Amino acid sequence: MVEAFLIKAPDAMMDTFTNDVVFIDETFGDHVVGRDEYEEMNADVIKWADPDATRVVDRFVSEDGTRTVAIWDWIGTNFYGKPFDPPFVLIQEYKDGKISKQSISYASPDAYGQLMDQ
What we know:
The chain is α+β, with helices and mostly antiparallel strands. The protein has one domain (2-116): Nuclear Transport Factor 2, Chain: A (Roll), CATH 3.10.450.50. It has helices at residues 2-6, 10-14, 35-48, 111-116, and strands at 17-25, 31-33, 49-61, 67-78, 83-84, 87-95, 98-106. Strands 1, 2, 3, 4, 5, 6 and 7 form a seven-stranded mixed beta sheet that branches. It is globular. The termini are far apart.
């Protein structure tokens, strides 16, 4: 999923999600249900952010493999050409080998400023 996002390959990225995926962004308040809506939201993100890399700081997988929790650094350039590198926590739940729920929370107090400011 991450590699597909970085190279802006939405079809490959969306193949990792169930059709009824739920996405929640705890920091910005986005809540999307369904693969089509999530794909549309990601298309918008790609318009205003140019992600260069992500770095997994730490990752935990539940014993039964149905949930992961990862701490990431997201590095790139926002719509205005300014760099960003907010850390975030990503929680994913899996059903039939695909992501059925994804929740994200930026750990940086200035995530909005980094991602949106000019």
